[in-house]
């Protein structure tokens, strides 16, 4: 009985440890002050979607921001900043989750 509890808690701990290593999906909100017309968000989105590991980009022209969901094993906020910056839209990280 005691051994079973020990085993169960060990398994739970192992699952918790491994999921934190695998759970690499991250969402970041980027400030894109350079978006000045309604076609800018399209350019920004295209540039960000090209980055390997990016899963979703939601641009908001009114807020001048882009919310990017990405695999943080394959890419990083630094690479996202580079991609947008190279497309002519320098960004800063607003909220990292
Ligand atoms: Cu524009």
From TrEMBL:
Signal peptide annotation: 1-23
GO cellular component entries: cell envelope; periplasmic space
Keyword DNA-binding among record annotations: no
Keywords: Mercuric resistance, Mercury, Metal-binding, Periplasm, Signal
Residue ranges constituting the HMA domain according to the UniProt record: 26-92
Matching InterPro entries: HMA_dom, HMA_dom_sf, MerP, MerP/CopZ
UniProt cross-references to PROSITE patterns, sorted A to Z: HMA_2
Principal location: other
GO molecular function, one term: mercury ion transmembrane transporter activity
Localization terms from the record: Cell envelope; Periplasm
Domain of life of the native organism: Bacteria
Keyword Metal-binding: yes
Pfam families: HMA (PF00403)
UniProt function note: Involved in mercury resistance. Acts as a mercury scavenger that specifically binds to a mercuric ion in the periplasm and probably passes it to the cytoplasmic mercuric reductase MerA via the mercuric transport protein MerT.
Name of the featured protein: Periplasmic mercury ion-binding protein
The organism of origin for this protein: Glaciimonas immobilis
